[in-house]
Design goal:
The chain contains 18 helices and six strands. The chain is mainly alpha-helical.
Length: 305
């Protein structure tokens, strides 16, 4: 099956992405895409983990990512969509895989192994659009309980399995086809997809980043990689007062009883800014910090008794 066959299918006015190698785009544009992607990824990581600032300037990275990879490149160069391309090529070796698709797929995963989900923090156009639409969602997101949140988050794995099945069975790309944000990036979609996209943005007003939390197949892979990250964000039980301020201000609802689920944390830094005691630690030795938990809790229990 030729590569061109992957791009002629459509839904309404939507057509699948065409990579630079097959569209005649000059090499300098491909280099510009890769260079900007790497630069923004590094800047995002620096902003997230720098001692001061705590990622308050991530909005600038998000704006650049949305402007270039979203509207200018029409959402075609996206690690989320690259999952389908990589899967199709793995299941059907005759289908050529763009070098750019490999870059988009691999680089955020490597970054997640080292520093967590820094791609989600500032570089993902889909996350940036949801942040912009749901800036006020923090007031109501706590209504989703921890158990329900974990159950919904399994949707990312279900979508990933569906993407893999489609790649194996029909060599199709469902992520690109049903992405609720591409309609805005490309300003072209079927009436049904316009309605779906509009409803999704309205939903973002009351739930922060619903696509990232419950539907993103690439988020499932990033979450798995971030579990083994060299640097993580944890809550120091030795100084934590269990006030739950960090839990209430977390947009991803990934903090429960003084524990941060690093697989779902997008490193927005709101828990750091919300803790008045500085108990949220950025550390490369998370186990050493959490090792104090039994002793501290026992001491508090004896004091209360």
């Amino acid at each position: 099956m030729a590569v061109e066959e992957l791009v002629i299918k459509d839904i309404g006015e939507y057509a699948y992405p065409v990579y630079p190698e097959s569209s005649g785009m000059p090499d300098w544009m491909a280099w510009a895409d890769v260079s900007l992607f790497v630069l923004l990824l590094l800047v995002s990581a620096w902003l997230v983990w720098r001692p001061a600032g705590r990622g308050r300037w991530l909005w600038a990275v998000q704006l650049a990512a949305v402007g270039w990879f979203g509207f200018f490149r029409m959402g075609c160069l996206c690690p989320v969509g690259s999952v389908g391309n990589v899967a199709v090529s793995l299941f059907h070796p005759a289908v050529l895989l763009s070098v750019l698709a490999v870059v988009w797929f691999v680089l955020p995963l490597v970054a997640a192994f080292v520093m967590g989900r820094v791609f989600c923090a500032g570089l993902c156009p889909l996350g940036a659009v949801q942040d912009a639409a749901g800036w006020n969602a923090r007031r109501v997101r706590s209504r989703v309980g921890p158990r329900l949140e974990k159950a919904f988050s399994m949707g990312t794995w279900l979508v990933l399995l569906y993407v893999l099945w489609c790649a194996f069975d029909s060599q199709s790309l469902p992520v690109c086809r049903y992405d609720p944000f591409v309609a805005f990036f490309r300003m072209a979609a079927s009436p049904v997809m316009w309605v779906v996209s509009g409803c999704f943005l309205v939903f973002c007003l009351v739930v922060s980043r619903p696509f990232c939390r419950w539907l993103c197949p690439y988020g499932a892979l990033l979450g798995l990689a971030s579990r083994f990250a060299w640097r993580k964000r944890v809550i120091d039980p030795g100084t934590c007062l269990q006030c739950r301020k960090c839990e209430k201000c977390c947009p991803m609802n990934c903090i429960d009883r003084g524990r941060i689920d690093v697989s779902r944390c997008v490193l927005c830094g709101r828990c750091v800014r919300g803790c008045s005691r500085g108990s949220v630690a950025d550390t490369a030795d998370a186990d050493a910090v959490l090792a104090h938990e039994p002793r501290v809790r026992g001491k508090k229990s004896r004091e209360r008794g």
